[in-house]
Amino acid sequence: MADAFAAVETRGLTKRFRGGQLAVDHLDLTVPAGTVFGFLGPNGSGKTTTIRMLMGLIEPTSGTAQVLGRRMPDAARTVLPQVGALIEGPAPYAFRSGRDNLLRYDAADPTADPRTRAARVDAALERVGLGAAAGKKAKAYSLGMKQRLGLAAALLRPRRLLVLDEPTNGLDPQGMREIRALIRELAQDGRTVFLSSHLLDEIEQVCTHAAVMARGRLVVQGPVAELAARAQDRIAVTTPDAGDAARILKEHGVTGLTVTEDRVTGEPPPGDRDPAELNAALVHAGVRVRAFGLERGTLEDAFVALTGEGFDVAG
Ligand SMILES: Nc1ncnc2c1ncn2[C@@H]1O[C@H](COP(=O)(O)OP(=O)(O)OP(=O)(O)O)[C@@H](O)[C@H]1O
């Protein structure tokens, strides 16, 4: 459950690169603790730059970023041990096994007790479902398995916050499903998960809360259910007389009409008119209605409505 504490909070966070590129523009982000928070935006909208500032990897041009209640990058030494991050994509040593990779990773942490190392590594491998493949060389791992190995590395210590940058990027649908299921599990024991994605349906499936970025700016943030509810329901008519149907619907106040072959959709007229009246008007005008219904608005509709632009992404 979310509580009042913010796991991440930025105020006026801005990054302008030396070339003049304004990558992040006055970002006020609040990630309530205990949420699975989706950081959504098309490629180039500033997600990775924001995450790099949150992790203290680059300095903001102006504004502030707090992670787990402490200012970054100043508090990086105290904050980062409590944060598991998967940022640049997985890059294990190809000729070592998954287990060896984790043993080395753990050994690089001066605060990790060497006596409990093996047990810690095995527990992390089990946690991400790599127990059986732990002895295989990483070069034999699929991308999804490498991504799991990266998650296992992030889970070697107890973490209050997981930061995952595009964790399903490049995975096939099965790999995506597996990583998404794992993320949901990881969120169950109260830790905050912050993940970036350019996939709307991924955010809808996995996240409780989300923020939407476009061109370096925050468009909207809040609980996913509330964001999706902002999107209006749409009227959808299936008919062989699509042109006539669109005309009649327009006459009756339906806006934003789109016609694709035998389907017409649009936004219902303002007010509380019963959609059945529209159906009756169509039939009365001789339109042969095969199906008439209301479709629930999605996060994608909300995004389009909020930004006035499409979500130009390929899988
Ligand atoms: N080191 C840099 N120097 C100059 N410009 C940069 C640098 N890093 C990123 N940018 C620019 O800043 C903008 C935001 O990039 P960023 O990588 O943060 O977006 P993103 O939403 O994470 O997209 P992606 O999913 O493609 O990584 C882009 O226009 C990018 O070209």
From TrEMBL:
Keywords: ATP-binding, Nucleotide-binding, Transport. Pfam families: ABC_tran (PF00005). Belongs to the ABC transporter superfamily. The keyword Transport applies. The keyword ATP-binding applies. Residues 8-240 form the ABC transporter domain. This is ABC transporter ATP-binding protein.
